[in-house]
Amino acid sequence: MSEQATDAATETFLGYRNLLFTVAYEMLGSAADAEDVLQETWLRWIRTDLQEVRDQRAYLVRITTRQSLNRLRTMTRRKESYVGPWLPEPLLTAPDVAEDAELAESVSMALMLVLETLSPTERAVFVLREVFDVGYDEIAAAVDKSPAAVRQIAHRARRHVDARRPRETVSASRTRAALESFRRALETGDLQGLLDVLAPEVVLMADGGGIKQAAVRPIIGADKVSRLILGNLGKHRSLVTAGPTVANGHPALLVRVDGETDGIITARMDAGRITGLYYVRNPEKLTRIASETPLTLR
Description:
Blueprint lengths: L2 H26 L2 H15 L10 H25 L14 H5 L1 H6 L2 H7 L4 H12 L4 H8 L3 H18 L7 H17 L2 H7 E10 L11 E2 L1 H13 L5 E8 L2 E8 L2 E11 L2 E8 L18
Parallel strand pairs: 1-6
Antiparallel strand pairs: 1-2, 3-4, 4-5, 5-6
């Protein structure tokens, strides 16, 4: 490829980079793996004859999808040996992500966890069709299936996700208020305060990755969750702070112990109370909370 052609390819790739990262992240739940996919996409893109490409955006999304599927299958094997629950890598996101309801919902921790229950192909089809509104023919080319098969996969994946996603869309202000009540109870050791904000059937999932201490199984029930949280962080209560932040387009809490980052807490809300708490403590998954990650659906 000539220098001029390389410059043109580079300009096009950079123009779509945020979109391609968002596609890869939603398929993988890992920013580090999404960056690796983008590198692989770039290497294939600069070897492409651009004069043969009719729709550059669609072609780049296709390459990214194929590389993401390859990576997703590798990650499935990695997760089988992961210590404790595996949670998606949280991203510090800009205000415009939170203001875009469709984008914020698509990268929410609650939905990302639902996507974890799909097969790699189902996840790719769902993300491309439901999130990015890619046509069935283009998805078929990306996942090496017929358009008819893709329609069936999309229908099956949509039904699976709809049965497991939050029943209602909760405003950021309501989530923020619930997390503020949670924060006050956490910092003061107020057991009743925690019980008041947690749904009876709340589930706590903590991801320490075998590096930080965390429950190796989900904890279910408001009483068990409250006592575990207060028991663990209560040992350091005078040193624990939980400040508001925005992760994956939604209100979250950044927990610090003695001034050092301990983790990110995000929440799933249903009927005005917290039904899911997701606490990422694995330091390898906290590299994207110092600066905002730009995301886009377009």
